[in-house]
Amino acid sequence: MAEILDIEFYNDFIKQIGLGINISKLYPRGHPSLIPVVQRLKLLLKELPLEKESLSVVVIEDVLMIDEQRFESKKLPIVKSLVDRFSQVGVKSITFDVDTSEDDLSGFFLAMAATPAEISDYGDIAALLRAKGILKIKINKYRVGVVSSDEEIKEINWEKFLESIISYKEFTEEDKIKQLGNFLAGVGVVGSEPPDIQTNKVIAGLEKIALTIADQYGEERWNEYSIVFSRILAVLSPVIKKNIIRYRTENKKLAALFKSLIPTMPDEDIIDIIATKAKEKGPNSEDEIVDILRGITGTRLPNILSTIRVNLPELNFERIVSRLMAELKTVDGTEAADKFMSKNLEVEMRSFFPKLREKSIQERTKAVEDLLDFSKKLFAAKNYELLRILIERYDSMSDAEEDLSVFKKVIEAMKVISQRAQELGVEDLVQFISKKFSRHLIRREKIFIDKKKIVISAIGELKDQNYLAELVSLLWDPGTFAEAREALISMADFSLPVLLESLKETEDRSVRMKIIDVIIKIGERSIPGVVKLLSASDWFIRRNALYILGELKAHQAIDEIGKLLEDKNEEVQLEAISALSKIGVEKAKEYIKNGLNSHFPRVVISAMRNLDREEVKPKLLEVTQWLKRKKGVPDEKEENFRIEVINLLGEVGDDSVVDALSEILNEKALFKGDLLLATKEAVLHSLARIGSEKARSTLQEATRHREQFVSATARSILERI
């Protein structure tokens, strides 16, 4: 008689599961408080009766079922807590193998504490456990299990039995269990026997039935009976089914029947069988593995393939998948093969996702690189939907990543995928990736500056026009000027119109200078657009355009620049002189001469500075008239202008200006006389620069000047020259 577990056992089992999940959620990985829980749960599993291979906890609405025992949420708070958690992570049942290790139990608790994002990386909670190599604990694999009949062993009339099962038009689950019970009783299976003995009896019974069918009805009716038998045998226990699949029979009909059981088996058992065959390394192992996988359909196959790819490196995985694809295409058509390939690719891709959360920087970096390499497969398959999922995962990682080197790898990977999409003309994918950069650009906090720089550089390399306006605004954002400038330069064909328009609209000088800097760095390509600004209505736009053309030495724009020497604004004329002088060719010099006729004295001064002495001689007399003071009390602005004229005369003047200069040395003022000191000092320096005999003589006389400042300054200058 089977041993019955008491209610205290079940209560303790539930309690330990609840404790383990709560500890894993509240404390960091590896916390010692989990150890006694794991050890207690392991001990409880060891206390299971010998005939029990596993223990299942099943969720039915707000109730937990273990064997025949019901545990209601209303009565036990821990049950409510467990039901809620199971619902959150999509658990309908948990089956613990009696041989579950402590490592598997610890891994199970960590999995049950996983966040929705972590579970999503694997697909679901069951896939997460498989990926961690936990095969002794099965999620949502609860099956009605009929191992044997405990009825009294008796002889069975096989002909009547066969007639009875063939008479069923449609098998219910109850019918299957009933007929299986009859069959097991007929072959002498007893529930207390070891699984191996039960398996041998089941196989012997099936062989006997196969002979009976051949003798009584003819081999042609085997197919009819085998279909019915495959349905009945589907409700065998997983252990017995697994043993049957491993059994090698020479009877091809029975072999086909055994193979039909594969789709009814849990994924873990199928993987276990494949692992055994892989380790055997027999001459037909690969053929047998492909044969097993051929019978699996739907989303299960990619999940199983993903697990064996990771956990069975001794298999030639690519060749197995290739063979399955070829057969699927032949049997079910190209569309079915493509669908299988897509799902297989998704499962394989998702197997990398958990590694993006590893603590090690090196492991995370490698995972990013591996996924980038994997993206080549997605492009080859033209599976752009999976590429979107990959980009979404990269994007969420970039948002949370704290290490700058890993962040850079992620952005680099997104950039490479975008470039490949551009090459292939997949514009919607390009735009999808482009949108992912935006949130990094809008962050203003200092800690995000380095991340922002990396993203800006990537945008520049991609020549992403979506961010032109943002890049211009980033020119005066703290710490991003250099990167934003380089990005704008790299996409000059697109950025130049935006920059020129911004230059027209911006009044802030500091902002204008940064925009101007970028335009100058773009070089000759910007000249046609800048020339158009020379006709702008705002004087400062015309001036800025002249400055840029001067910096670019735009000799092709000399005529347009020269015309602005007739501009109504003094600043524009001054900038035109400056631009022409920077260009420096003979034609520019001819235009500079026109500046001598300007009605703005400062323009005349600027023109004279950029011409030879002989060319400005006719203008000297007029210029010396500007030295006469217009105000009785010295004025700082007026004195600054006079100093500018005096310095010019020192550069281009001759004896004709010496007398006018010397007169300034004798000027006096009752108020603000100290403003004249700088002017008189400028006169003495200009006399020294003119250097003629008359100029030196005047300078010598100044050493005896009655004003001590003048005499002392004159002596100092003469000593130096």
List keywords for this structure.
elongated, 721 residues, HEAT repeat domain-containing protein, ARM-type_fold, 66% helix, PBS_lyase_HEAT, Leucine-rich Repeat Variant, single chain, mainly alpha, 4 domains, five-stranded antiparallel sheet, oxidoreductase activity
Q: Which range does the strand content fall in?
A: under 5%
- How are the strands of the largest sheet arranged? 3-2-1-4-5
CATH class (first level) name of the largest domain: Mainly Alpha
Count helical runs. 39
Q: Roughly how many Å apart are the termini?
A: 126 Å
- Rg, Å, rounded: 46 Å
**Structural class, judged by helices and strands?**
mainly alpha
**CATH architecture title of the largest domain:** Alpha Horseshoe
CATH fold call of the largest domain: Leucine-rich Repeat Variant
Shape: elongated
Low-confidence stretches: 143-156
Pfam family, one: HEAT_2
GO molecular function: oxidoreductase activity
Protein name: HEAT repeat domain-containing protein
